[in-house]
Amino acid sequence: MPKMYICLWSNDKAEDMANFYKSVFKGTKIGKTWYWGPNPMRVKEGSVLTMDITVLGQRIMLLNGFSKMPFNESVSMVVPCKNQREIDAYWKALLRGGGKPVQCGWLIDKFGVRWQVFPVEIEKWQASKNKKKKQAMNEAMWKMVKLDAKKLKEAFDRA
């Protein structure tokens, strides 16, 4: 049974995106590439239509749609990290080349894709039945741009 996967409309940047994400995430594989044939959109025949990549085990199809559709905040890629070193490394790498930090562990890469980079423990903290601990952690997070796992844990534990 085929598994569901993500398609990102990359305008005309599929190859650039594939190579960028391969440089950010170790083990990224570039898979099938399909090319435009004759078409009514006046896209050059033989240019890349789609490229499949696998990032952190997730298949993503990058589509060169050749119309300028912007990404928006309603969709983001989520990267749970084992430790602060991973958070720092992904944060720096995803901002490379013109990305923008946002808030609460969110950033926008140079292609306009939104990312959430956070410590994997945040899932446990958010699932806690202790509302005071969860609220304290959230309040600490809301003051951050790049997340600091140690400070989040301290806020959670202190409450």
Automatic annotation (TrEMBL):
Keyword field contains Transferase: yes
Start and end residues of each PhnB-like domain: 3-117
A Gene Ontology molecular function term of the record: methyltransferase activity
GO biological process: methylation
Organism, scientific name: Nitrospira japonica
Keyword field: Methyltransferase, Transferase, Ubiquinone
Pfam families: 3-dmu-9_3-mt (PF06983)
Protein name: 3-demethylubiquinone-9 3-methyltransferase
